[in-house]
Write a structure and sequence with these properties.
about 120 residues, mainly alpha, about 65% helix, single chain
């Protein structure tokens, strides 16, 4: 019988494992309440909290779901990084990821950022 078998111990979870688990749970929650933009905005903020890259943080914040223009300081961060010769492929990758989002606001802001940087 199953109840007589010894319980298996779970291995300690690593940081990347915890981040993956949180991302997986957030994805499930996103599918459950996909119409609620506050949930998507919370997911963006949570995912950027686990990211320590200033350029990616600037891209996520510049293309947030708020119905305002991208903040100048985030555009400036990306612009300075581009002119320093750093992170060109990364900025393009992050912006193209944002173009693949479902929200029209995020996509429009990503296009605005690309236009401002070019």
């Amino acid at each position: 019988p199953r109840f007589l078998q010894p319980r298996r111990r779970r291995a300690a979870m690593t940081f990347s494992g915890a981040v993956h688990k949180v991302d997986k749970e957030m994805s499930r929650a996103m599918h459950a309440v996909s119409a609620d933009s506050s949930v998507r905005n919370a997911k963006d903020k949570i995912s950027q909290a686990f990211t320590f890259d200033n350029v990616k943080k600037a891209v996520v914040k510049a293309t947030s779901l708020e119905l305002t223009a991208p903040k100048e300081k985030h555009i400036r961060t990306m612009h300075q990084s581009l002119h320093a010769g750093q992170n060109k492929p990364e900025i393009a990758k992050y912006l193209f990821e944002r173009l693949g989002q479902k929200d029209a606001v995020t996509v429009l802001k990503a296009l605005t950022v690309i236009h401002r940087l070019c």
